[in-house]
Write a structure and sequence with these properties.
Layout lengths: L1 H4 L33 E5 L3 H8 L14 H4 L7 E5 L5 H16 L5 E7 L1 H14 L4 E5 L13 H10 L7 H4 L3 E7 L29 H6 L4 E6 L13 H9 L3 E6 H5 L13 H6 L15 H6 L37
Parallel strand pairs: 3-5, 3-6, 4-5, 6-7
Antiparallel strand pairs: 1-2
Helix pairs in contact: 4-5, 5-6
Length: 343
């Protein structure tokens, strides 16, 4: 499906509101000219092993927001798979560099991070931050779809990111106080103006307010601001549609919302003469963002009609990718399928 819709990526950079661009507020048009990475062979662990690399200890107040859907897709792969080589993604390299700068500067206190980047880039950012920061990091995976060779969005790339960029998890004794960093996939609602057609596996999904901490939970954990990270602020003027309700609720509770991009984070200066951390409150004040109630994709019945069977309806059938040696199949629960989408 991606090959069919994205056959002329450079020529379509400037097209908006039509059925030919995977438009989504948090996706930069710059990445649309970046080639899809070639495949490479991965040694694939079991879902239990992969979950052990990413799932924070139950002592963490953020553990209940972890989603194991994409992680569960590795079990049918029988130990090996051909997946995109996400080490070649420019945005993953930029995310890694930005996280290294943030780690060197010191993390702002009382802050929830939302990384709304291409899935592999979110994994790269969280991994580098967890390994380089002095403070413990609690990465929270929110990827709630299944890979497929004819999938509408590249869940295989995101899965490759989880395999390629594992984090350093905080030990159980520090998990309760680790900085929460939520990993989002900015592709999750792409191709919103398209009719996927009967030959597509519609593996898109939304994050509902219940998938994120509510204002009371944030307040109870001392969180007073949310930093929302996108690839490029020149392209992302608003938050993704499925986040609007949560953002408005947080804002109404007095929690500050700040939208930043990788370029901003890449310029965070290193410490000078041992001064840690920098004044994040001062740096972020100019990036404060006022969330407005607006008509979103969540409210648009035409989107659900185009999703064939209703967005969030779970049904499907197994298949074998002709170039792969594994059978991803289809999932249950919130997964999408032929004529449905993930929810």
């Amino acid at each position: 499906m991606r090959a069919r819709l994205g056959i002329l990526p450079v020529a379509l950079v400037g097209v908006t509101g039509c059925g030919l661009r995977p438009w989504t507020p948090s996706v930069s048009v710059a990445f649309w000219s970046e080639d899809v990475p070639s495949l490479r062979e991965y040694a694939v662990p079991s879902s239990t092993e992969l979950a052990g690399r990413w799932q924070i200890a139950p002592e963490s107040p953020w553990a209940r927001y972890h989603k194991g859907t994409l992680i569960a897709s590795v079990d049918p792969m029988a130990g090996r798979a051909a997946l995109p080589d996400v080490r070649r993604l420019e945005v993953a390299a930029r995310a890694d560099a930005a996280a290294a700068h943030v780690a060197a500067a010191g993390l702002p206190a009382d802050t929830l991070w939302l990384l709304d980047l291409r899935g592999a880039a979110s994994a790269a950012f969280a991994s580098r931050l967890s390994r380089d920061a002095r403070e413990p990091i609690a990465p929270v995976v929110t990827f709630n779809n299944w890979p497929a060779h004819d999938g509408l969005v590249p869940a295989d790339e995101t899965l490759a990111g989880l395999l390629t960029f594992p984090p350093r998890l905080p030990p159980p004794e520090t998990a309760a106080h680790a900085h929460p960093v939520f990993l989002l996939d900015s592709w999750r609602l792409a191709y919103r103006f398209d009719d996927p057609g009967d030959d597509a596996f519609d593996n898109r999904y939304m994050l509902m307010p219940s998938d994120l901490p509510d204002a009371e939970t944030l307040r109870a954990q001392g969180v007073t601001r949310v930093v929302y990270v996108v690839e490029d602020l020149d392209d992302a003027e608003v938050e993704e549609d499925d986040l609007n309700a949560s953002f408005r609720a947080w804002q109404a509770a007095g929690i500050g919302i700040f939208i930043v991009d990788l370029a901003f984070l890449e310029t965070v200066p290193p410490p000078v003469n041992g001064a840690w951390p920098i004044d994040w409150a001062g740096r972020l004040s100019s990036r404060g963002y006022w969330v407005r109630e607006r008509y979103t994709l969540v409210d648009d019945p035409r989107f659900y009609a185009r999703a064939r069977g209703g967005f969030g309806l779970a049904f499907g059938r197994p298949f074998i990718h002709p170039g792969y040696r594994w059978v991803p199949g289809t999932g249950g629960g919130s997964l999408g399928g032929r004529g449905g989408s993930g929810g």
